[in-house]
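Curious: why these numbers?
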Amino acid sequence: MDDLLHKLAAHRRRIKVARVADAALRWGFYASVAACLAVLVSKFAGVALPTAVAAAALAALPVAMALREGIRSFSIRDCAIHLDRHLGLDERLSTALETVDGMGPLLRADARGALERSPLPRHAFPRESKLLAGSALLLAALLAIPSPDRSGAAGDPAFQEVTATELQRLESLANVDVQFKEAAEALPDHPEQALAILEEKRAELMAKLLESGGDASAAETRKLLEQVTASSAAISAELRRLGRTVHAPPPAVAKAKLQRQKAVEQEAVLASAAVASSGASRVASAASVPWNPRYEPIIRRYFGREP
């Protein structure tokens, strides 16, 4: 009995270790797939993810599932049933453990001999373990590939120089408006976002300048507008040089441009109406003055009244 129990205990430890390893490999593959998706979302969709927290959670997943498998109940009897099923022993081991008196010694001797004669099958690793290496290589490749919004900028000295110059300018204007502080914080890692903030501020300054009507604050607004325009133009030019996407102006900029276009059109309409009324008054005054009939075609052509 003791010899059979020792053999079953050794098989039990081996089976527990194999199950723990299988759980770690299986959930390690799932964690690597989740990490690949997280990197894709972070790099190509521009979604900011807490890297340290996500990495810790994904690394803890296979460890937690391996621990769960390790503390799961797996007794000597469960091991005997498992070996009976996998070795084709027709319940010899489980029956030998349950039978104590009578035929017990003979059954245990038969079970011990059958266990020693039966070759142990080769351990089959889970299917996910074969895909783990591929998913790990894919994750390494995704981590090595730079993000599209930072491609070509990290090692470009001209871009870094322009960024440093504009960063100093924006930091000097941070006490004027909080938007300059936001643009300065976004410029090193997300220049497109900083450019959008500057374009929005530029539209606000242009609208404010149009509403000021040349009062005392117009000079200060115009000076601030020139600085914002210069920063926006410098950043936009560097982004275009690097082949990075310069997004369309935000709605505030488009709205300001549309308002300016409408104002110009209204001024043109008013000017044309004034010219028309002036011409009509000149025609009316000319019609009241007598002249020689032979000059009628010349006068009509001059005042726009062709017969």
